[in-house]
Amino acid sequence: MAAQLPLCNSPTPMEPQEKKVADPRPPSNYADLISALPLEEGWAPVRTRKFQGFWIPEPVLPGIMDMQQNFKARPDDLFVLSYPKSGTTWLKALTYAIMTRTQYPFDHHPLLGQNPHDCVPFMDRTYAKGQASELDAMPSPRILNTHLPYPLLPDSIKSLCCKVIYVCRDPKDVLVSRWYFSNRMRLQSMEPIPFTKAFEMFCEGSCPYGSVWEHVLEYWEESQRRPEKVLFLKYEEILEDPLRSVLRLAEFMGCPFSPEEEKEGVVEEVIKLCSFDKLKSLEVNKTGKLHPDFPLTNDSYFRKGEAGDWRNHMSPEMARKLDRITEQKLEGSGLTLGGVAVEASAAINGDDQALF
Ligand code: A3P
Hints:
Rossmann fold; 356 residues; 18 helices; Sulfotransferase_dom; binds adenosine-3'-5'-diphosphate; alpha/beta; EC 2.8.2.-
């Protein structure tokens, strides 16, 4: 149970004290439409359906359809967007801590008693549970999150030109993170997904929320067209220079740190509060759950929090293959991702021995 915390004025964590039981009104009128969509079961127990060109997890699909039709963005909404397993949880914590930094002392902050996903709601699931009214009830400015690829975003987000912060990550680490997460979701009776199988599905773009490359590229291009509205971040760059990243985030969000705040170490406080070690160590993030019916405890969002764990899971050949795909897919865009597999894994492993 979350600790008793002061109620936020704005933005408000969605479920400050009590975990709500799912509303029994799933948007079920899409059932026929959904059952006719191509199905993929390789990441079971989560099945995905191909919707508007992307593989979308079936449980959130009704919510996404509902959201596309009914979500009304507000001009001052801030959207935290990502391909899953790219650092969403961290970015949620950072944006939330930056925006609420004058509302709460850092030793009595909502992030100490609530998971970042409770502070910044995941719209896809909120809609899928029929709880969209909770988003409507949030005071402005709202910070909201979805994993939707750019073309699938509700029109009002695009037409209002809301600010968007997108985080991406080396696809090799995204895959490893996804593999662990999906295996934790597998029921006790299910065998873990072999890494080679996960690798294949990932390369084919058959993954929850589709091809990582298409996802990233759409937001990258949008950030090039409208840099004042779309901030494009890399997980590895935040890790490498959190100070610069947090300053950049605050500037983009329209709440830059004052010289006094900088002098008083407020930026460092934000970084410390949102650090992997700090968040992972909190009781709510060890044993808490996002929803009573969600199969995983919150610790599944805090595994290793490093760049380069792919070295422990794939052979140099696999890494090279993924880097080659990344290079091909991003060719001509001006964006680079990963791309150190050949030299780094050769240096570390010494040869081409596959670990799997
Ligand atoms: P690993 O599985 O590689 O450890 P998402 O939030 O998009 O689901 O991404 C999850 C990944 O972000 C996990 O990566 C997780 O450990 C990492 N992560 C979560 N919180 C973090 C933090 N505060 N700092 C750095 N990494 C974090």
